[in-house]
Amino acid sequence: MQQSTAGSLHHLHVSMGLNKERRTRNRKRQVVKHPCVQDPDRELLQFNVRLAKARQAQADTNRIERKAFREHARVENAVTAYARELCARLEEQSFSRGLTLRSIPESRDAVLIVQLSDLHFNERVDLPSNRYDFSIAAQRLAKLASRVKQLGKSYGARKVVIACLGDFLNSDRRLDELLSNATNRSKATLCAVDILRAFVLDLREQFEIEVYGITGNESRVNKELGWSDELASDSYDLMIYEILKRGFAGADGIAFKGFRSNELLFEVLGRTFLCLHGHQIGANVQRSVQEITGKYAAQGITVDFTLFGHLHASAIGDYHARNASLVGSNAYSEAGLNFCSKAAQNVHVVTPGTIDGMKVDLQDVSGIEPYPFAAEWEAYCPKSERKLHTPSVVYQVVV
């Protein structure tokens, strides 16, 4: 009886152990997942990632749309502010009102051509080798006028042709600065007009004046450099020319004869002169000039002499003359390019048989009285300093 009971207990324990082992194996089999079954946590994570990416895509789209609107709004606001300030300043201008202009004396056949280019009125330079601001610009133009008068007396000239070859202002094309500096730019424009008005009237004391003009590359309003008339004429050079033209309208002996965007032709004593700014001329100057004049030859127009600037260094050849700048060396040219230059402008004496070109050195203006101008309009754009700094991208997203 005892043996039977012990055997039953042993069998019960074995059975219970087998059942326990079987239940453990069943639980283990229940824990094992089929490869096709997704982990709920992983599925939730993937859904959150997709949602975050969709939100980021929408945010990027909104940012791009807001940026496009913001740029257009800034440009429109800047142009409106510029026009408003300019109109306000124009009401204060009087170009020849109350002035008695002298009669033009009779003389021999001789005409002087004054190249004016790269004046960069609103640039400020403060170097040991050179200084430049509106006052010094007014001094240098006064010195130029005195030299032109001396040449006129020597050659018996009765007329001066002023060829405006662009870059009369530095332009800041960053949109934020375009808006914040709208008032300063209008004042800089009127400062330039004030000084050039005095320059023209100074020459008018002795000569009949004709003025022609083209646009430069630095004075453009847009970011892009345009070659079409519509785009290239969006320039402060045109603005300054048109203000002077309207201010001198009706003045005896002062005529503004024409303005073009990139190239312009005019005649003096039967000789044809081509005006360029110079940014379309390559490293081989002689070849580039002949290529440009060749397209006019194909139209039956013979260009006798080409006038341009742009590189801020004087160079006078047989068939062309490159102008220096009124500024001279600046921080960018000296430290960034290792290139030094002097402030200078070219003057040409045209007679029936000759074209005599010369550089007028304007670097030293000691003892020269500057033309008066409204100093409260003075504004600066120290652009040459900024060119020395290499921009770096802190964070950039490329789509």
Structure description:
The protein has helices at 2-31, 40-90, 134-155, 175-180, 182-204, 229-232, 236-247, 285-297, 331-336, 383-386; strands spanning 111-116, 125-126, 131-132, 159-164, 208-214, 254-260, 264-268, 271-275, 305-308, 315-316, 320-322, 344-351, 354-361. It is an alpha/beta fold and 399 residues long. Strands 6-5-4-1-12-13 form a 6-stranded mixed sheet, covered by helices on one side. A 5-stranded mixed sheet has the order 7-8-9-11-10, covered by helices on one side. It has a two-stranded antiparallel ribbon with strand order 2-3. It is elongated and about 140 Å long. Mean pLDDT is 79; it is low at 174-183 and 393-399.
Condensed summary:
The protein has helices at 2-31, 40-90, 134-155, 175-180, 182-204, 229-232, 236-247, 285-297, 331-336, 383-386, and strands at 111-116, 125-126, 131-132, 159-164, 208-214, 254-260, 264-268, 271-275, 305-308, 315-316, 320-322, 344-351, 354-361.
The level-1 CATH class of the largest domain: Alpha Beta
At CATH level 3, the topology of the largest domain is Purple Acid Phosphatase, chain A, domain 2
Task: Indicate the percent of residues in helices.
Answer: 40-55%
Element order: H for helix, E for strand: HHEEEHEHHEHHEEEHEEEHEEH
| Share in β-strands | 15-25%
Radius of gyration: 37 Å
Tally of contiguous helical segments: 10
Gross CATH architecture of the largest domain = 4-Layer Sandwich
Distance from N terminus to C terminus (CA atoms, Å) equals 90 Å
Assembly level? single chain
Order of strands, widest sheet: 6-5-4-1-12-13
Q: Supply the helix-strand structural class.
A: alpha/beta
On the 0-100 scale, what is the average pLDDT? Answer: 79
Number of strands: 13
- Which geometry do the CA atoms define? elongated
**Major sheet characteristics:** 6 strands, mixed
